[in-house]
User: Which sequence fits this backbone?
């Protein structure tokens, strides 16, 4: 596909120059990054960059940057923060910061999307900033795939990447494709791929594997093949019939097909070849206390088998969480439904909530808010559907408004997925406020 080559604006280049010069000066730096896909990719890109500069580098991934994690950070060393740090500038000032979260103030060595005239929740994630910085400093584009995987992980590819965020797609390491936006294009057999199709939900196919077999049989498609193994003609036929089916069942089909990104140099039938599966693989590593494995995969170490093992554990815990939700049910509030669990791992709470609403295990007509005890308070995760978002719901904003004034409490995130931490005695007030704010967003 012929495309204009993106040019980095002057204003951005100016920043890259200053922060890049600082990178070159660092002595035995430590990269402090978040443990999710964007955190690990941005961290790995910085590690690759600093190593290429001939430096001895260490990684220090953290679940979040707050007083709980401050202790473990070697503050007397040269630090590079990625995917966090801008919100904690009092502590991080003086170090290099590569972040796309709302900054509190300007700082010389801080590279933040918001200071580049862009939006940190839509235009560009930390991985993309790290990639631009890396390209500026060492001149190679090897980590272009990681840049896109981070953006996929932070939900920035629902629409095609645009502007300078397309830079990685202009390299040989990333290919844009048009096709189904469902999960598992590279590794899932078609029957499973269809069964888990949930955004949008396909009545009579989603969740019903036998009907998926029937559907594929009618198209003469082997259910054991993968989506990516289909040839042009098979793909065309598959898309046509699936859209016909969906439209016939009253489904809005505009979100089914779209642009997505693959990493063509990665081995076939591994999660590393499809950016969306890759980001899930990394999240599984991070959420199950092995961010080092995710980082290793990104840096080309031979740890893919271990990452896959973590992905299996991840899926097992998710299905256990779903069983608990089905057994306990949810409590109805006017503008959301509440799932409380005493046992679920806080790091997968949001994913379970997401599966519950997208699989229609709970109603898709109002957001789900999930709550579990953590660190003497509560971890809260909210998930909506894209249809709810189109109707005005913005969970990230709602959470930010609903948390209390206490320093420990915080909330925020994306429109469709967000999280918060509230104190033990703050939960009731938080839920009531959420109900009110969501009501306003939905014009009820
Ligand atoms: Mn991020």
Assistant:
């Amino acid at each position: 596909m012929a495309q204009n080559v993106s040019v980095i604006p002057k204003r951005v280049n100016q920043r890259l120059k200053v922060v890049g010069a600082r990178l070159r000066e660092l002595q035995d730096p430590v990269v402090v990054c978040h443990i999710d896909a964007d955190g690990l990719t941005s961290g790995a890109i910085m590690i690759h960059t600093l190593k290429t500069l001939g430096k001895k580098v260490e990684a220090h991934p953290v679940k979040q940057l707050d007083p709980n994690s401050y202790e473990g950070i070697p503050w007397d060393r040269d630090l590079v923060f990625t995917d966090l740090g801008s919100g904690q500038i009092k502590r991080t000032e003086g170090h290099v910061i590569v972040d796309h979260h709302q900054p509190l103030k300007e700082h010389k060595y801080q590279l933040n999307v918001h200071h580049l005239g862009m939006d940190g929740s839509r235009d560009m994630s930390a991985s993309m900033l790290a990639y631009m910085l890396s390209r500026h400093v060492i001149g190679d584009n090897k980590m272009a795939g990681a840049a896109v995987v981070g953006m996929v992980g932070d939900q920035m590819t629902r629409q095609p990447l645009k502007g300078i965020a397309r830079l990685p797609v202009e390299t040989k390491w990333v290919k844009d494709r048009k096709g189904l936006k469902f999960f598992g294009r590279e590794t899932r057999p078609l029957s499973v791929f269809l069964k888990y199709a949930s955004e949008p939900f396909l009545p009579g196919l989603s969740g019903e594997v036998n009907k998926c077999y029937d559907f594929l049989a009618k198209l003469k498609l082997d259910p054991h093949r993968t989506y990516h193994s289909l040839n042009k003609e098979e793909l065309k036929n598959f898309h046509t019939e699936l859209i016909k089916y969906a439209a016939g069942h009253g489904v809005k089909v505009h979100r089914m097909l779209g642009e997505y990104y693959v990493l063509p140099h990665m081995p076939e039938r591994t999660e590393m070849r499809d950016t969306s599966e890759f980001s899930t693989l990394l999240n599984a590593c991070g959420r199950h206390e092995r961010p080092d494995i995710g980082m290793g995969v990104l840096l080309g170490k031979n740890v893919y088998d271990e990452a896959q093992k973590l992905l299996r554990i991840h899926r097992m815990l998710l299905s256990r969480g779903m069983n608990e939700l089905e057994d306990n049910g949810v409590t109805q509030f006017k503008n959301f439904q509440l799932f409380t669990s005493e046992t679920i791992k806080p790091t997968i709470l949001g994913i379970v909530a997401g599966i519950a609403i997208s699989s229609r295990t709970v109603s898709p007509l109002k957001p789900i808010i999930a709550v579990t005890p953590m660190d003497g308070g509560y971890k809260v995760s909210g998930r909506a559907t894209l249809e709810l978002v189109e109707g005005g719901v913005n969970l990230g904003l709602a959470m930010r408004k609903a948390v209390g004034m206490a320093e420990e409490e915080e909330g925020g995130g994306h429109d469709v997925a967000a999280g918060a931490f509230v104190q033990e005695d703050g939960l009731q007030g938080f839920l009531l406020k959420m109900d009110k704010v969501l009501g306003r967003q939905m014009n009820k």
User: Anything to note?
Assistant: The first helix runs from residue 10 to 25. The chain has three domains: 10-156, 178-312, 329-441. The domain at 329-441 is CATH 3.10.310.40 (Diaminopimelate Epimerase; Chain A, domain 1).
